[in-house]
Structure formats: C-alpha cells, structure tokens
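Record 1 of the preview.
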Amino acid sequence: MKLEPFFLPNMKQIVLLMIGLAMTGAAFAQDAAPSPERIQSTVNYLASDKLKGRGTETKGGEQAAAYVEKQFKAIGLQPAVGGQFFQQFVFARGKHYNLHSKNVIGYIDNGASRTVIIGAHYDHLGHGELFNGRYPNEIHNGADDNASGVAGLLELARHYQGNGVKEPFNFMFIAFWGEELGLHGSKYYTRYPLDSLNKVQFMLNMDMIGRYNPERGVGFGGYGTAKEWPEIFKGVQDGGIKFFTDGSGKGGSDHHSFYVAGVPVLFLHTGGHDDYHKPTDDAPKVDAIAEAGILKIAIQLIDNAMKFERLTYVTQD
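->
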C-alpha cells in the first residue's frame, strides 16, 4: 500500500485560512444585522396594491401568509405547528361567522427550557370590507400598519438564526392574522399555545414601527409588566434613535393578549399619524433606516432580558 504524504500547512497558508474564516464570520454577522434594504423590500411587497390590503379571508391575505412562510423557510426557522408553519383557526366578528384565518409560526430550538416570543400582525383592512371604514372602496395597503412590524419580525428572526450564537432561550416568531378585527390571532394563540405560557420569558410585539418621528421617538410599552425591565434597559445604546418607556401592558395590539394571560411584554410603536387606517399608508413613507436602528435597540433589550433566568410578571390594575 502506498501511503500519501501527510499535509502540513505552512505559516502563510495558516494565516490565509485564519483571515478567510474571520472574513466569513464578519460577513455572517453583517448579514444577521437589521438591514434597511431588506426592511424596505418586505414593506414594498406586503404593502403593494397586488395584495390589496391583506384583508382577512382574502387572496391578498393568503399571499401575505405565504410570503411570511417562504421567508421563515429561507431564514432557516423550524415549522412550529406539527411540521408546518400555519396555525389555522376561525373566528367571528359581528354578523360575520367562520372567518378563516391563520397565524404563521417559526421556531428556533436552542434546547432551552424557556422561550422568547416575538410577534407582529400581518393583516390589514383590505378594502375595509369588515372594518366599516371611511374608505370602503379603496385599498388600505397598511405599510406602517403593519408591514413595518412584519419586516421587523423577519429581521429579528434573521439575527437570532444567523448570529452564530446558541442563545440560552428558544425563540418563537409569530405573524398574527385577525389583529385588526379584534386581536384574534393572538387571542387564539394564548388560548391554544404550542407550549405552556409559563415557559415564556416575555413577548415582544412590533406594531407600526415604520414612521419614526425624532421629536416623539419610539415608544417601548410594557415597561411595568416585569420587575426586571428597568434593569434590562440600563446601558442600552440608542444609536441616535430617541426612545421612551411606557408602563402599560394593555393596549390595542397583540401584546395585550399575552399580558392578560400572565406573560411580561414589550410593545414597540412609533406613534400615530395622519395616514393611520387610511389608503394613504403607503410603502414610500416608511423610514427603513430608522426602523433598522429601532431593531438594534430591541436586540440589546432581548439580549439583556436573556441574562435573567426568569422575568417576574407584574400585574397592573
């Protein structure tokens, strides 16, 4: 038998290999950072006329769900619902019964005993069919409300799937449907969770984070829902993005369902504007650069919250 000579790399080859690994790691980390370009691309698609406002039980809403599912797969999330990404449910609103809807749920399994939930709703008003709005025959594209939140959801999923770190918590990413008609997606999930809500460290919700106003700043609600939030916020670098805190865990978005179910929450919101629930809430008005900055603050808070074994839920009157 002829033995092949054992290969020993010389010093130059070792240095080149180390440089290559470092460059690969840097590129990997860079890709995991929130990207204004990807944020804008997500908003452009979800808030396009093609999806006709992503109304409940509409073709555009189904297209939005399929888009989120495709992105979850591309990011590398695991399907969380028995081998699939969709949690199907029905609900009623007023005289409308058996409205079919679905949450889109992806998972990062870090082998931990507890989980962080990150959410945003992907539905909007469509043509106002069920919402009885002031503009019943016009498309409500909902770029800020809430394509911007879904863009944030996908960026945080990319970060925690692609940062090369095995975090001490699992992650569940949920895109809710039926929010505009009464928080139905989050109500259903908290009624039928995929794992015990007692194992949830906290829930972070993003709703309307695309219209940053530097005079107001971005609000972080839910500051009073866990004893540890004040400590978690200490030392957070804002990167030029002004932010403030609000104590309440209650409100008109999906974090409310988790708070009343006994889960600490955070709620990101850049505030109301003249285009709220109007056909003029369009993609070019979203500030993707500022949204990326907001998400960098959110990442710091999530990382700080994972330093605690368990957050202490605080009940509010």
